[in-house]
Design brief:
about 20% strand, 14 strands, alpha+beta, 8 helices, about 400 residues
Length: about 400
Amino acid sequence: MIPLDHAHLYVSVGTHPGRKGKNNEDRFGVSAYQVSEDVLTPSLLAVIADGVGGHRAGEVAAEMAVEIVSHVVAESDAKDPGGTLADAIRQANLAITTRAQSSTDFLGMGTTCACVWILGDRLYTASVGDSRIYLLRNNEIKQITIDHTWIQEAIDAGVLMPEQARGHPNAHVIRRHLGSQQSVVPDFRLRLSSTESDTQSESNQGLLLHPDDQLLLCSDGLTDMVSDAEILTILSKDHGENAIDDLITLANEHGGHDNITVVVMRVPEKGLEHVIKGKPQRSLLTWGLAAAAVLLSVLIFIIGSYYWLQSRDDSTSLPTQSMVIEATSIRDDQQMLSPTDVVQPRMTSTVDTATTYTITPPTPTSEFTTPEVTYTPWPTSTQVPTDIN
């Protein structure tokens, strides 16, 4: 894909190490593209990763996840978003696992990963771990990813009620992460309703975005401290940097126990109907005018050539060329011009100039300028993921 310096949605990002003196092991990346020179569909990718592992290794894993996923998506043709995201996450997992085995400093490192890929006005997601993606629509907030945690498994099994999850001792035991020795399966469930089956949730991939929709990607440093209702209240009244600052401030006021990273993307009020999809569609009128111009040029050339051939004198015929510079002889009483003088030769044309229509493909428009891809420079340490059976 072709990198762009702007995006077709509003994007705001922020990260903070929290209040417990931890290194910031969270990483995020936001990238805007155009699919290709022929396919003008704009593309927006956001990735967040929450690293885990001792000796500053978590930051390494998170950095690798963001960079590898972003690279694989950037090199794709965007024809199979789900397949591309799955391949990107698998490559990131293999690279992190290999790196972890290369040194005792990196042993046990891993990371969560949550991805939002917007192609035109369609949403695609993938996640591993407990970093979340939310959809805010019509004054409601929905967590559209499912946590890969012991707590979520207990809730699904009916062992715990959702209200018992906050503060539970196993709240941070994650069941799936990049850097695992086992094969990691990305989760493509895009859950819009708690009553949906997994198959129904996966079929929501490619969801059509509506005007004023907001998408929130965040690490658990936010959601452990701030409730969904509080997130909705803040994002309903504030936009941009103010909303990011308010969310991070509230998480820190409630304890700030972990790194906090937030990415918010908002669809413009007028929606994305103006987004150009696929190859530029030239109207029949445009094609007709272009064809008429070409035919007119050919016709004028034929007629002009015919009359020129009929009228020319064989004994004084000029060289065959469309433009003729008429030479002017200098009489004895004329002043010779110096090399610095300028003479404008008289030009005659044997063919009338035809009107030319230039067909210029439309260019994608943007509502605002997206900040360049930013990778936070801090590493962190978080509890190594362990399974509890």
